[in-house]
Specification:
- By secondary structure, the chain is α/β, with parallel strands linked by helices.
- The chain has one domain (8-298): 5-stranded Propeller (L-arginine/glycine Amidinotransferase, Chain A).
- The protein is built from 10 helices and 15 strands.
- Strands 2-1-15 form a 3-stranded mixed beta sheet. A 3-stranded mixed beta sheet has the order 3-4-5, with no helix packed on it.
- β4, α2 (106-115) and β5 (120-123) form a beta-alpha-beta unit.
- The longest helix has 21 residues, at 38-58.
- The protein starts with 7 loop residues before the first strand and ends in a 6-residue tail after the last strand.
- The relative contact order is 0.19.
- Pfam families: DDAH_eukar.
- Keywords: Transferase.
- This is Amidinotransferase.
- It comes from Pseudoalteromonas rubra.
Length: 304
Amino acid sequence: MFPQAPSAVVMIRPHHFLPNEETRADNSFQSQAQQFDGGVSQLAYEQVTRAAEQLEQAGVRVHLFEDLGTDTPDSVFPNNWFSTHAGGQIAIYPMYAKNRRRERRTDIIELLKREYRVQDVIDYSGLEYDNLFLEGTGAMVLDHIERVAYTARSKRTDSHVLERFCSHFNFEPMVFEALSEGGVPVYHTNVLLCVGSDYALGGFDMIVDPARRAEIKHRLQLAGKKLIALSEAQINAFCGNALELSASEGRVLALSQTAYDALTAEQIAVLESCVTLLPLEVSAIELAGGSVRCMLAGVHLSRR
């Protein structure tokens, strides 16, 4: 019903969650604490469990997979290693951190093939051997209606892989540079920008080039989207890391409780004129530098 808002998601429930040491250097959203006790791991398990329950109660189909391993600390963020697309296509992506490459799971792809109509799986992961990376819908924020791939430059996004993806999947790349006030590149586009069916939340002031910033805002407005500008403080509270989904009573915007609490009353009113807000408590997961959007791999496939 809503091309931008999938009605099903894949989630991973970690049994030994810890923030990833390999990604700490270039992920400024990640907690810099050196030690995490077992309570964080247990809390992460409980929060993923509860988030999946809340999504299902809202009418979103959740495919919940278990991660029993101890060598995949970021497995709770599956949207980085695969994405699904209308017409029956799946993309598998090359990952920057070596320990994140172990997150790819054939059982997830096989379930998607059983439950949905899958025509083609395009695997870009071999490009890792050439140090070429594109971390899925973390690196790209896709407008499935207008066919635009909004992409911030970073170590996790190679322009050649992006061009290849856009050619295969019929998206137009819109690449830009985005920096924090401290001059640090934004590591993933999906912490900066959320594109819904008729609205977009973005840290637009973090886009370095004023002309490119204006072009992106104009492009979103031409597509009929209400723009909600987020401050850098709100970006750091994961207000941009949200995902629109199709639920029983229409569209919902899944976001973290942290993000919801950081929005202004005016911003909430604008959003609620478009979509129902569904805050999820994922504070333990956010220690790893990602939030609700990163936790949800949307399923844009037709069910069998």
